[in-house]
Specification:
Bound molecules: zinc ion
Helix content: 25-40%
Structural class: alpha/beta
Oligomer: single chain
Radius of gyration: 20 Å
Strand content: 25-35%
CATH class of the largest domain: Alpha Beta
Number of strands: 17
CATH superfamily of the largest domain: Medium-chain alcohol dehydrogenases, catalytic domain
Number of domains: 2
Order of helices and strands: EEEHEEEHEEEHHEHEHEHEHEHEHEHE
CATH architecture of the largest domain: Alpha-Beta Complex
């Protein structure tokens, strides 16, 4: 396929303002490929970056008015190879992880590249090789993007473009379970918050053999999708005392709790649902300081894990479950727009218009 020299992109202007623009098509460096983007899912973190800035970091500053292109949950086809790449061929369908760590710091060396100690140190005279497309480097609301081969995951032929964009979300869920200890077969997992990460955490936990898998939320339509993704029990926190129900169901509290809501109430619920010696993954970004019952956590020897993104090749591992149809990730994809209509697509995702969960945009080529 021919690669043009210029491409259509969206860039971030002032807070909340996306602009249509053109940029040169980037060229892949050593160990990198050029991806011709076919589909991009909109993430809550994109909404956060576009409106407020963090966690994006461009030139060490807020990402506004710097010609920065957000978007990080994309897939497409390899369009060109950088020097030294023989792992992929032009035309291969790929989905992407966000973070290419520097590869040389202690965190990267242990597989924790989403916690790279050189995060964002890739501008001006400093180039540590770190990339987080859509966070510290140009992302996917464009026709093309450059990705390190370490961030690529093959997309099976039978999988549609929209579903493939969900691999990074499923990978984040997988990373949460990995950090909790990974082998959850026969152990109880509670997921609080049926957003995209929570819903796919249900699918991943079930595929890994967790039993029972319990989903706690407040919106019936989302709890219903959770059931279809494999939840054994769904609890509507508006109707039942979820903490009491989980203590009843498990006798002693849950082995693992994934908080995918990030509120003070949900984190306290997680602590009170967890068994003595159990493990809690905080998979959502809480805002500001949170008043939590640490006394209960410590007295009961609980472990708290904060996670950031999708380390330890979790996207590849989640994609293996998706490829084997162990759960149907496409259940959370609700809308598709042309990328020309990105602001409208963002409105659907932000305001949950028409019960939107995952909204995907597709560039024209
Ligand atoms: Zn995301
Ligand atoms: Zn690093």
């Amino acid at each position: 396929m021919g690669v043009p020299t210029r491409m259509d992109v969206w860039t971030l202007g002032s807070p909340g303002e996306l602009r249509r623009a053109q940029k040169p098509v980037p060229s892949p460096g050593r160990g990198e490929v050029l991806v011709r983007i076919e589909a991009v899912a909109i993430c809550a973190t994109d909404l956060e970056i576009i409106a407020n800035g963090p966690p994006a970091l461009i030139n060490g500053r807020l990402p506004f008015e710097q010609d920065f292109t957000p978007g990080h949950e994309y897939m497409g086809a390899v369009a060109a190879l950088g020097p030294g790449v023989d792992e992929y061929a032009v035309g291969d369908r790929v989905a992407v992880e966000i973070h290419a760590g520097c590869g040389q710091c202690r965190r990267c060396r242990s597989g924790m590249y989403t916690s790279c100690l050189n995060y964002g140190r890739n501008y001006g005279d400093v180039d540590k090789g770190h990339r987080a497309n859509g966070f510290t480097t140009d992302g996917g609301f464009a026709q093309y993007a450059v990705n390190h081969v370490n961030t690529l995951v093959r997309v099976p032929d039978a999988m549609g473009d929209e579903e493939a964009t969900l691999a990074v979300t499923a990978g984040t869920s997988m990373y949460g379970l990995t950090e909790l200890g990974g082998l959850v077969a026969g152990e109880s997992v509670v997921v609080i918050g049926p957003g995209p990460i929570g819903l796919l955490a249900v699918g991943v936990a079930k595929a890994l053999g967790a039993s029972p898998v319990v989903l706690v939320g407040t919106r019936e339509n989302r709890l219903d999708i959770g059931s279809r993704l494999g939840a054994d029990v769904v609890l509507n926190g508006r109707e039942v005392d979820a903490v009491a129900r989980i203590r009843e169901l498990t006798g002693v509290g849950a082995d693992y709790v994934l908080d995918c809501a990030g509120t003070e109430a949900s984190i306290n619920d997680a602590i009170h649902m967890c068994s003595r010696g159990g493990r809690i993954c905080l998979a959502a970004f809480p805002h500001g300081r949170t008043n939590v019952d640490l006394e209960h956590a410590v007295v009961n020897n609980m472990y708290l894990y904060g996670i950031r993104g999708e380390g330890k090749s979790a996207v590849r591992r989640a994609m293996a479950l998706m490829a084997a149809r162990r759960f149907d990730a496409s259940l959370i994809h609700t809308h598709t727009f042309d990328m020309d209509d990105l602001p409208e697509a963002i409105r659907y995702a932000r305001d949950r218009v028409d019960d939107a969960i995952k909204v995907v945009v597709r560039p024209r080529h």
